[in-house]
Structure to design on (314 residues):
DNA sequence: GCTGTTTTGGTCAGATAAGGTCAAACGCAT
DNA sequence: ATGCGTTTGACCTTATCTGACCAAAACAGC
């Protein structure tokens, strides 16, 4: 306990605790200056401590007026569907495994029927192409991305 | 949301929202003065945010009494959203065209922000693979499938 | 009707202002 | 001395903004 990364981490969590929302917006450059470190240090902190598995979502924008926005998710990461998605979806996944995952998420009550239908439209109701392995890889990516978004931003929220 | 371009964009959309028609007329120089920027900044905003793909048509005239007129293309909701999806999404589609379509559907009010975010997660926030053409084909299929579902089964319905 | 001047807007290359990536160096505990 | 988490720096990508120069439309005086 005492590394620069730890300090940056606590600083950001402090901002989250004190702010009115579960969200903070900072600038990489400004943060790096405040802590007198290389800007890429900030990326290191984000990628090791503010991951989805730990209950955070990070959103960024480049260019003039760029920013880094950190959202804190309210669920317990362990029990949530998020954890399951990370466990079940690897680099590649076949249709059946994907369908099973969606069914389980619906069962758990973390995914509603409409969301499930969207996911099915996006990843199952698709013809096969001539590149089955690439297809499994793309399916995994799309599935993970869309489920992550749905779970981190539930409907009506 | 903090860049000058963003402010100019919202200002113009505000004028469109408050005006009696789906059309607004401004002067480039006057706008540039209001926002204290180079006149060409206005062209930048127009060319990045008020494109046909996003549902706007811009008409200009030079010389004394010159103007910049922005029309917001207004389609009938519901049915035409579906129509647009069929028009815009062919056998294959690149990222930019897909993004523009989604932005336009949001603008039209037939797709809410969360659905849009899901679609973006599914089709844009994806790394490139080594098979770009196949990727464009899969993107088109996924995009069409998911948008059709979302439009035919709107949230809260 | 011409012609030149003024008033607009258009274009495009380059500057500026973010943030991202990755490999190598560092440093401490085992 | 090796391994892992940390830290840095060089280089890249994206988004925005400006300025110099160009083009068209209107207008004024002939």
């Amino acid at each position: 306990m005492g590394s620069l990364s730890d300090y940056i981490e606590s600083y950001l969590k402090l901002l989250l605790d004190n702010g009115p929302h579960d969200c903070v917006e900072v600038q990489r450059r400004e943060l790096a200056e405040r802590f007198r470190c290389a800007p890429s240090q900030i990326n290191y902190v984000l990628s090791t401590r503010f991951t989805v598995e730990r209950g955070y979502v990070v959103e960024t924008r480049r260019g003039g007026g760029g920013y880094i926005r950190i959202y804190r998710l309210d669920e317990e990461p362990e029990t949530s569907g998020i954890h399951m998605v990370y466990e079940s979806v690897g680099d590649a996944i076949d249709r059946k495994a994907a369908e099973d995952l969606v069914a389980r998420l619906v069962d758990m009550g973390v995914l509603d029927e409409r969301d499930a239908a969207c996911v099915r439209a996006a990843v199952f109701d698709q013809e096969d192409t001539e590149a089955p392995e690439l297809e499994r890889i793309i399916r995994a990516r799309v599935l993970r991305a869309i489920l992550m978004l749905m779970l981190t931003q539930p409907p009506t929220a």
Summary: The interface with chain A takes residues 1-6, 114-115, 117-118, 121-123, 125-127, 129, 131, 134-135, 137-138, 141-142, 145-146, 148-150, 153, 155 of chain B (CB under 8 Å). The mean pLDDT of chain B is 88.
